[in-house]
Automatic annotation (TrEMBL):
GO terms for molecular function: CoA-ligase activity. This is Acetyl-CoA synthetase-like protein. InterPro entries: AMP-bd_C_sf, AMP-binding_CS, AMP-dep_synth/lig_dom. It comes from the Eukaryota.
Length: 675
């Protein structure tokens, strides 16, 4: 029996509703249509030189840009010799841009598809994706890249535009050596620049000069009316943990559904949605969000287990950092979350660029827009008119300064950012009191890190669960959920169902752990040109199609989901299965551990896996024990004392940083070479 979401079933728009139709209605929403929504990086930040003339975009600006882009494509500005037609693909190859989403929607209005490519890829990797999707154009940034090593812009390094030109050349001149089934692209493959002022190569030549009036809107809408909900809206690419990345086909129906589902789950931390969907309910009165958590809910909630966490920290670390009565630490958390004023005391907060109503949310985005998670967050922002600063990528000083200076109330983050909030010394230099909750995603969130952020800053950290193949949101904790099940990833999104199976395909009961299967309107159409992967991804159970997540999970009687492990991430040690997530949780409890990943390694000529840890030492650990071998021995002794013999970690390698994807996932396949 499928496990249904505990949330009410949503009466979604008609199946052929497109993303642009949901988000870019020409209805006038008064001031909300005209107020700034997507802000470029703040002036004076490390990123401000990328597009110095960039202005914030309102919902009206986004709509006008999208329609102008669509008109330019329809008029043949991309290629006069080859008209832009339904299904044509434009590949995005750029870090975050404040107008990224507007351009994606414009391509869709013209009947096209946006392929969202990772700008850190090399030319050969990009060429593979261009061939796979038969792209017509690559839209790339020509801004000097940011160097994580120096913390500055590197003006001597090649840009995404440079890589894109080489990738396009390879895609046109060579067949795909790796797969041997995607032939070279025949015909024009244009590479254009995101930034303004690049002459004929600039993307602005597509949309510049149009007046978006009723006649233009009517012409574009006629083209857009050819689209159906089952048509592809975007191609996102899986992380490629085995083999080359796969193109995930997400339809308009998938994304329309997930925007509404995500808004329901995020209703406590976004502004009031512009559309409520009452006209789709059988009674004509019930809206999509009537039973969702109200905005600001959970301000007085203490996370389950937090008091015990503070008590243990005090007992194990009775001198130095972290001392003080339990009550004092708890009061600090409660006081921090009760600060209702979103404005910082910084004099610059009065800058008119960032003025807004006092009751409004104001977010900051660092999630990569080429990742489905980052894109859907921006789509929800349009649906709710929730303003945000959009940074090209995470940069600690710019992130902290923006929160302090502009009264940011919320941010979507990944665990590495939370590690910085919990432990980085620079945090103490900024007033982060306006930021009282964050949401983590893209990688598992250890409770120790969430508690560490709460203890230090009074910030509530909710977890969530998603995958690109589900558009991507499957579940998100609300702040109120932290009191009930902090070790969960929340409840299933509305209109989503789950099934838990044992290794033999037998359906398990509520509360039993097994492989998690999912279905819902946000489930992908499939992988592009990859029938073998589709056979592995989908399962037929009871006459219905389900997506196999590859995750081991359990769902309790209240509907809370707990992810216990990845099927393919399990280590086989001495005939038993070992959960890396369980061991990583134990490592995170150690004050000497800044970051850690546990995986299986093999010695040359041996088929037996060893349980091995790769860890980043906290600066304090180096001060207290400079000898790496002694430090490793001390940590391993503590961890191994808490587990069965077959689970014991056989070694620990200290490294400077864990290899991670741009979405924050640890690339465990790269760890063995670092041993």
């Amino acid at each position: 029996m499928p496990i249904a979401s505990k949330h009410p079933v949503l009466h979604l728009p008609p199946p052929d509703t497109t993303l642009a139709r949901l988000l870019l209605s020409t209805k006038d929403h008064g001031r909300r249509t005209a107020e700034p929504l997507f802000y470029p990086p703040p002036a004076g930040s490390v990123f401000s030189s990328n597009r110095p003339q960039a202005k914030p975009m309102s919902l009206g600006d986004v709509r006008d840009r999208a329609y102008a882009v669509a008109k330019g494509l329809i008029d043949g500005r991309l290629s006069p010799e080859k008209p832009f037609k339904k299904g044509d693909v434009v590949a995005f190859f750029s870090l975050n841009q404040h107008d990224y989403t507007a351009n994606v929607l414009g391509i869709q209005l013209a009947g096209g598809v946006a392929a969202l490519c990772n700008p850190s890829y090399k030319a050969k990797e990009l060429a593979h994706q261009l061939r796979m999707t038969s792209a017509r154009c690559v839209l790339a940034s020509n801004a000097a890249p940011f160097s994580a090593a120096t913390g500055q812009i590197d003006t001597k390094a090649e840009t995404a535009f440079d890589v894109a030109k080489e990738g396009a050349r390879l895609a046109q001149e060579e067949d795909d050596d790796d797969v041997k089934k995607f032939p070279k692209i025949e015909g024009p493959l244009r590479v254009m620049v995101f930034e303004e002022g690049a002459g004929d190569d600039s993307w602005e030549t597509i949309y510049r000069g149009y007046k978006v009036d009723e006649a233009l809107i009517k012409q574009v809408d006629e083209r857009a009316s050819e689209l159906k909900g089952s048509d592809t809206a975007i191609y996102c690419f899986s992380s490629g943990t085995s083999g080359l990345p796969k193109a995930v086909n997400l339809t308009h129906r998938n994304l329309v559904s997930n925007v509404i589902q995500s808004t329901f789950l995020l209703h406590d931390r976004v502004n009031e949605p512009l559309e409520q969907g009452r006209e789709y309910a059988p009674d004509g009165k019930t809206g999509w969000y009537d039973t969702a958590e109200p905005k600001g809910a959970g301000r007085d909630v203490l996370p389950d287990g937090y008091e015990e966490f503070v008590k243990k920290k005090r007992e194990s670390h009775s001198s130095g950092q972290g001392t003080g009565p339990v009550k004092e630490s708890i009061n600090k958390l409660v006081d921090g979350i009760k600060k209702l004023n979103p404005a910082s005391k910084d004099d610059d907060q009065t800058d008119s660029l960032y003025k807004r109503s006092a009751e409004d949310e104001f977010h900051i985005d660092v999630l990569p827009q080429f990742h489905c998670y980052g894109l859907v967050v921006n789509l929800v922002a349009l649906h709710t008119c929730t303003p945000r600063i959009i940074l090209p990528r995470f940069h600690l000083d710019t992130f902290l300064r923006s929160i302090s200076k502009h009264g940011v109330t919320f941010s979507f983050v990944v665990p590495p950012i939370l590690l910085a909030l919990a432990k980085h010394p620079s945090i103490d230099n900024y007033d982060l009191s306006s930021l009282w909750r964050v949401a983590s995603g893209a990688a598992s969130l250890p409770t120790e890190i969430a508690f560490g952020v709460a203890k230090r800053l009074g910030i509530r950290c909710t977890d969530g669960y998603g995958m690109t193949e589900m558009s991507p949101i499957i579940s998100i904790q609300t702040v109120s959920n932290l009191k009930e099940r902090i070790d969960s990833v929340g409840r299933l999104a509305p209109s989503t169902e789950a099934m838990i199976l044992d290794p033999n395909g037998k359906e398990l009961k509520v509360g039993e752990a097994g492989e998690l299967l999912l279905r819902g309107p946000q489930m992908m159409a499939g992988y592009l040109h990859n029938e073998e992967a589709n056979k592995q991804a989908f399962a037929q159970v009871g006459g219905s199609t389900w997506l196999r997540t590859g995750d081991v999970a359990l769902i309790d009687e209240k509907g809370f989901i707990k992810i216990t492990d990845r099927l393919k991430d399990v280590i086989k040690s001495k005939g038993f299965q070992v959960s890396p997530a369980e061991l990583e949780g134990l490592f995170y409890k150690d004050e000497w551990i800044q970051d850690v990943a546990v995986t299986g390694v093999r010695d040359a000529g041996s088929e037996e896996e060893k349980v091995w840890a790769f860890a980043v030492a906290h600066p304090r650990a180096v001060e207290e024990e400079g000898d790496e071998e002694k430090r490793a021995s001390t940590v391993l002794k503590k961890v191994n004392a808490q587990v069965a013999n077959y689970k014991k970690v056989q070694g620990l390698t200290w490294i400077n940083a864990l290899p991670k994807s741009d979405a924050g996932k640890v690339l465990k396949k790269n760890l063995a070479a670092m041993r």
